[in-house]
From TrEMBL:
Residue list for modification N6-(pyridoxal phosphate)lysine: K295
Name of this chain's protein: Aromatic-L-amino-acid decarboxylase
Superkingdom of origin: Bacteria
Record's keyword annotation contains Oxidoreductase: no
Keywords, ordered alphabetically: Decarboxylase, Lyase, Pyridoxal phosphate
Species of origin: Aminobacter aminovorans
PROSITE patterns, sorted: DDC_GAD_HDC_YDC
Required cofactor names: pyridoxal 5'-phosphate
Enzyme class: lyase
């Protein structure tokens, strides 16, 4: 592509992006199509000859866009949000134009130093103490893997990477029953093994793991010659927002000398509001925390921050330093590739810098407070309808409910069919989960452009479709 064409198509893409965002409210949130429908419209073999850009772009509009689920739709209430505030999209365009590999300080000094700065901005924004350093990872899954590998190496006196695990005692890691599947996978990949992920029964409104149960499990494992390594606490679980008592977990960990990692991938964004920080009280005592500005905060995917109290232990676990990566004694230089599993790194700090400056913390706090308030309001409204039941009260902006009209035999089937009918309708998008063995419907308000009227629409759609279904 020549320079003039690059300019033309970049402008075209920018125009398209703005039109797309403006028109989202009129689109169904989830596309109405059958599996294979898009695949069948794409040529089965690659082109031998160059094709004109006009045609490529026209195909994008005709074949791809109608098959997209619109995550930036204001009535996206499913999963958790993956907000990409327009200003972060602009930053991503610039990043992608420069397309730098930011693995070492010298491969992009500004990317490294801006990352150091904006991660520290976020530390201050979340009210974390100065003792935490941090790094931007691609995903919470990677951050949790890095934390689990660090737990493992610390417990094995840094011998695991070298000697493997075959001669090592069995390592044990503890968590509640409500952690995200990324924890399971970190345990598998790190060679610790699913049998050694000990799930402590949870209790109470926030389904926190029992500290007594945790303590007892650690003591029993020690007595049996196993090697307790660390605990993963959850703040704002994916299903219904399950939240552990971090202070209590830290207390148990201290007694036994264990590492604590906190998964606050979604809920971490809310901690820019001081009034929500009670949800992770005690967090200043943990070893690492992951939170995703690419979820609720508005930094275009991917952008996951891992805060670490002792980065040296992480670097000791992950740094390799072959000759060609050495920066030869330039002291005070951070090479962030030594803080993460992948070597190559995108320039992820720029969008966060743009976002924080363009909205200010106050602007972002306002958005989060609105979402929490609207969600609480919707839970109250639905709870007042006789045929609806709130199955978990709001944790921040997430709650679950189910439709339970008299005379329906299988409420699980009924509610699963209801979610499907709502999503086929397209005005809003929701997802289901299982809670205490029952199928329930999740609702979270969190989309960057959502308004209170969009949440009102959610109420109307849910009630209308539920009652039409009987
Ligand atoms: C979304 C989520 C994750 C996974 O995040 P990725 O960045 O997609 O890996 C992990 N834990 C919780 C609680 C989440 O909500």
């Amino acid at each position: 592509m020549h320079s003039e064409a690059f300019r033309h198509w970049s402008q075209k893409a920018a125009e398209w992006g703005a039109d797309y965002r403006d028109g989202l409210r009129d689109l169904p949130v989830r596309p109405r199509l059958e599996p294979g429908q898009v695949l069948n419209t794409i040529a089965a073999s690659p082109p031998e000859a160059a094709e004109p850009m006009d045609e490529i772009f026209a195909d994008f509009e005709a074949k791809i866009v109608p098959g997209m689920t619109h995550w930036q739709h204001p009535r996206f209430f499913a999963y958790f949000p993956a907000n990409a505030a327009p200003v972060s999209v602009v930053a991503e365009y610039l990043v992608s134009a420069m397309a730098a590999q930011c693995m070492l300080w010298q491969t992009s000094p500004a990317a490294t130093e801006l990352e150091t700065r904006v991660v520290d901005w976020m530390r201050q924004a979340l009210g974390l103490p100065k003792s935490f350093a941090g790094v931007i990872q691609d995903s919470a899954s990677s951050a949790t893997l890095a934390a689990v590998l660090t737990m493992r190496e610390r417990a094995l006196d840094w011998q695991g990477n070298k000697s493997g695990l075959s001669a090592a005692p069995r390592i044990r890691v503890y968590c509640s029953e409500h952690v995200h599947t990324s924890i399971d996978r970190a345990i598998w990949i790190s060679g610790i093994g699913d049998d050694n992920l000990v799930r402590i029964p949870s209790e109470g409104r926030f389904r926190a793991l029992s500290p007594e149960g945790l303590d007892a499990a650690i003591v029993e494992d020690r007595n049996n010659g196993l090697l307790p390594a660390g605990i993963i606490a959850c703040v704002g679980g994916t299903s219904v927002g399950g939240t552990d008592d971090v202070a209590a977990v830290v207390g148990v960990a201290r007694r036994h000398g264990l590492y604590v990692h906190v998964d606050a991938a979604w809920a971490g964004s809310a901690m820019i509001c001081p009034e929500f920080r009670h949800f992770w009280a005690g967090v200043e005592g943990v070893d690492s925390i992951v939170f995703n500005p690419h979820k609720w905060l508005g930094a275009q995917f991917d952008c996951s921050i891992q805060f670490i109290r002792d980065p040296e232990s992480l670097v000791r676990t992950l740094a390799i330093r072959p000759e060609f990566l050495k920066t030869h004694g330039r002291d005070g230089i951070t090479n962030y590739s030594e803080w993460s599993v992948p070597l190559g790194r995108r320039f992820r700090a720029l969008k966060l810098w743009f976002l924080l400056r363009a909205h200010g913390l106050d602007g972002l706090r306002g958005m989060i407070r609105n979402h929490v308030r609207w969600s609480e309001g919707l839970a109250q409204r639905l709870g007042r309808e006789v045929d609806f039941e709130i199955t978990s009260e709001p944790m921040l902006s997430l709650f679950s409910f189910r439709h339970a009209p008299p005379g329906v035999d299988d409420l699980d089937d009924h509610n699963l069919a209801l979610v499907e009918a709502i999503n086929r309708d397209g005005r809003i998008y929701l997802t289901q989960t299982r809670l205490d063995g029952r199928a329930v419907i999740r609702f979270q308000a969190g989309q960057f452009e959502a308004t209170e009227a969009d949440v009102d629409t959610a109420f109307e759609v849910i009630v209308e479709i539920a009652r039409a279904a009987g």
